[in-house]
Amino acid sequence: MASIKPDTPVEVADIPGRSVLVLYGSETGNSQDIAEELGRTVQRLHFKTKVDEMNAIKLSETLRYTLVIFVLSTTGQGDMPQNSLIFWKSLLRKKLAPGCMGTLKFTTFGLGDSSYPRFNWAVRKLHKRLGQLGAEEFYSRGEGDEQDDDGIDEAFLPWSTGLRAKLLEQYPLPDGLTPIPDEALLPPRYTLPIGAHVNLRNVHEPDGFDEVGRRELFRRIENLGVLEVVRDSTPEVPFLENPAAKSHYHPPPLSAGAVMATPDSVLAILDANDRVTPAGHWQDVRLIRLELYHFRPEPLSIHPGDCVRLYPRNSPEDVDRLIKCMDWADVADRPLDLEAIGGELATGLYTDRHTTLRRLLTENLDITAIPRRSFLEAISHHCTDVNHKERLVEFSKVDYVDEYYDYATRPRRTILEVLEDFQSVKIPPAYALDVFPIIRGRDFSIASIRPSPSAHPGATANSPYTAYTVELLVALVKYQTVLRKIRTGLCSRYLTSLSVGAPVLAAHKPSLTRLNGPLHAQRPLCALATGTGIAPVRALVQERLSYDKSGRAVLFFGNRSREKDYYFADEWAALPTEKLRVFTAFSRDQKEKIYIQDIVRQKADVVAELVREDAIFIVCGGSSKMAMACRDAVIACMRKTGVCDTDGKAQDLFAQLTWWQEIW
Fold it and tell me: Which residues are CB-neighbours of 325 under 8 A, at least 6 positions away?
């Protein structure tokens, strides 16, 4: 095979008055991925480009750019993602004059799911508000739909192609300058200073603490008792490690600096990890109990509907495979000072500033994700085999989406497997942060909440310390691909490997829609849940029953088998029927499959009565088709029982319901 040299970066021309800001609001990272891709697209047109989350930018800063591109997901019930809320609130200030954004040119692209009632509401609200403030629409809004055959790409790819053409039309390049070709390597955004001098005294300061508060924080960590503090040559850098877990799983110790660097972070200690499905059942579902410790000055308050975000780690075996594949053994354990990079670190990189490449690969860089087209394009520049390079470039092209799907998406190939397939790819270690995606936290709905019985006795109302015990109902991801390879989700593998007492990096993610509390508890509740979607329902029911006055609740629950998949059955059976009535649908327990929407239609009178009583409706589960079927079933119940005499009136009444939906 013909050999070639790896590509060298092509410089972007510095042209005055030519700059683009790409801002994203993202919960799961999809909007960030698209924003990064748009950033590279406009950079190849010789625009000075910045990509960042919306909350990181002040409103006034947007006026400094030639164009601002907003990429925004809709979350929850038509809500803005958390990392866009500060920016959004700044747009809603009453003191803003109608024409104050008159010099801003913008365009927007939304990521949504049409199974939700408020499809792409976030981007529509943003687009409308910018127009109200006088901003000029440079290019029409684009809206992607997860329900399309090709997902978001079906709308995004033609939209981005049109945007590129509009930019070249409105901002033609000077004579003699052409766009940077797609096959050319752009300058790296981040270059890791492998082996740089580490100033051990220059440690990461936890937000919100002075030196006295910082030392008090670490004293409290030591007083937890289930942890030990392992210190290196300086007493300033603490690490958290569970000695009891060493025989089972021994990753690098958890850094207190990483805990404090993570937004809304809590330190989670694994208290129980129990399987709730039979050992022989195909689905391994765990009831995981966590002790949550909070060390920040601001109070921590957890409610039903909230989530815990867990940050998993790669296995040492996979990290060793990657290091061997990339020939990084000589540099993997050298000291790495991220402060030596200068400027900003990659968004979502929550770690100590003083680390090693091996720790980054273990804790921060996602090496088992399905590679996006942009990753395949990035590694093509580091090939030394012409055939490998040609193949990787093809996968990254819009015209070869089917080939990319057949190679990467359909068989669920991992990044690690791709690098082992293309052995001529040798990524320079300094480029690791520029090439690999960052591990994102996984969100799990809380199934139970209570103040922790092990709260530190010395804690006071003013102490940077609070504690909760929460339970999560987690279905572990494990399946066989079309290549007959067994796949296990990164977080699933991580959780099953941990022993009781192990520390886990976590964060509290509050719900943007509050349906809990004593006033909501007095309203009737109609919950429609399938599988582990029962988790937030359980937390809400438990809270409602804790009040002296609570309205009646009706639960429609669906799964495959009563004997194997009926979560919390004993709890539901122990409750009086005047407080909770349960209707079930177990699709595989009889010859004819029965689903939750079928039971809803059968109980039309019950549903109609709840509609008349202005009940709270919540729908939770792992299927958008289920959510749409439940919505249609509720509307059908209105028509069948005479609540509404026309389809149009039924649709209008449905739009007025309190309808909370959580689908993953």
Answer: 416, 419, 420, 423
Beta bridge mates, 509: 307
Asked if residue 61 belongs to a known ligand binding site, the reply is: no
Choices 2.60.120.10, 3.40.50.80, 3.40.50.150, 3.40.1350.10: CATH for 518-663: 3.40.50.80
Nearest CA among 323, 254, 315 for reference residue 492? 315
Is 233 annotated in a binding site? The answer is no
115 carries a ligand binding annotation: yes
3-state secondary structure 12-43: CCCCCCCEEEEEEECCCCHHHHHHHHHHHHHH
Q: What is the pLDDT of residues 191-230, one digit of tens each?
A: 888 755 444 333 334 444 445 555 555 555 555 544 434 3
Structure confidence at residue 454 (pLDDT): 52
Hey, is 285 helix, strand or coil?
A: strand
Task: Please give the single-letter amino acid code of residue 454.
Answer: S
Q: Is 452 among the annotated ligand-binding positions?
A: no
546 is in an annotated binding site: no
Q: Per-residue pLDDT averaged across 473-489, rounded?
A: 80
| 445 labelled binding-site residue | yes
Name the token pair of 306: 């909230």
Task: Say whether 118 counts as a known binding-site residue.
Answer: yes
- Is the CATH number 1.20.990.10 carried by domain 314-439? yes
Please check if 19 is assigned to a binding site.
Answer: no
For residue 255, say whether it is annotated as part of any ligand binding site: no
Q: Taking the domains of the chain in order of start, what are their residue ranges?
A: 19-170, 222-312+441-477+498-512, 314-439, 518-663
Residue 117 assigned as binding residue: yes
Nearest-angstrom CA–CA distance, 631 and 117: 9
The reply to whether 614 sits in an annotated binding site is no
75 among annotated binding-site residues = yes
**Residue 443, marked binder:** yes
Asked if residue 511 belongs to a known ligand binding site, the reply is: no
Lowest mean pLDDT segment, chosen from 307-321, 418-432, 445-459: 445-459
The response to whether 587 counts as a known ligand-binding position is yes
- 120 labeled part of a ligand binding site: yes
* Cβ burial 289-302 (10 Å sphere, 16+ → b, else e): bbbbbbbbeeebeb
Which amino acid is present at 258? A
pTM, full prediction: 0.83
Q: Is 27 annotated as a binding residue?
A: yes
